[in-house]
Amino acid sequence: MARATGLAAAVLCLSACGDGPDVYALSFSLHSNRVRAAREPVPPPEYSFESADGVTFHVDSAFITLFDVRLELPPGVRCAEYQDALSPRMTCEDATERQPGRLTVAGPLELDLRQGLTVAGGGLPIPPGVYPRIDARLRPGTPTEPSFRSRSSFTWQGQPHVLELDFQSDAALRFEPRGSLDFASAEHGSGLLGWLLVDAWLGETPVGACLASGDLPLTGNLLRLETGQGACAGAAEQVRGNIEASGVMGLSPRS
User: Fold this and answer.
1) DSSP alpha helices (H): ranges in the chain?
2) Tens digit of each residue's pLDDT (9 = 90 or more) over 173-232
3) Residue 117 Cα to chain centre, angstroms
4) How many Cα atoms are found within 13 Å in the side-chain-facing hemisphere of 179?
5) HSE (CB half, 13 Å, CA atoms) of 228?
6) Phi, then psi, of 231 in degrees rounded to 5
7) Sign of the CA dihedral running 10, 102, 4, 166
8) In the 8-state DSSP scheme, what is residue 40?
9) Global pTM?
């Protein structure tokens, strides 16, 4: 995976595209229920999560590579109306009698989740309207360029340490709303958001207890969950599943 820009999560916000039709801009980001969204977050919000026994981790970086990103076109939207506004990385298929229309980014789509940007740069505009969900898959990756990579800082026994979370996976990701969304407001300037929600990533793992018992050994100041034994055996697989299941979609206030 490229070492630059772009989870959670996906952010779709309304903007104008020159003299053409209004569009949403599709991007992906992290999210936490602990963070109150700012209208212009500079610097970006701080994201953190806790282990089962209260060790706090601050996300310093998070990168992910997706492919086959798919969105069902809103009813009544025709590709020809937006063809000039859409990203050249995106294909658009009109609805047929058998299936709804669809937008697809075949990928790979490399993302810096901490910054909410694509690594390659450039936006991903899509037509406005009601989207039920965003579907995607993780690109399988390699040991040197994993599907997901993050670094989170934490303090243990008064000393700074870093948790490395890297994994390879081809799992399907789904970003769906939790509760009803007011899409009418989104069409008047709100943002439509999809995130990787960090809050529960490590919620079942007693990191502090395992560090104290030696069930999670440290290598210098680095911690990797693959080394877990005892109460933390299987922690890496558990966290990977939590990350893969953490997709959420929602709306932001009008900016």
Assistant:
1) 79-82, 183-186, 207-213, 235-244
2) 999 988 777 777 665 545 567 789 999 899 899 999 999 999 999 999 999 999 999 999
3) 10
4) 4
5) 21
6) -65, -15
7) positive
8) S
9) 0.86
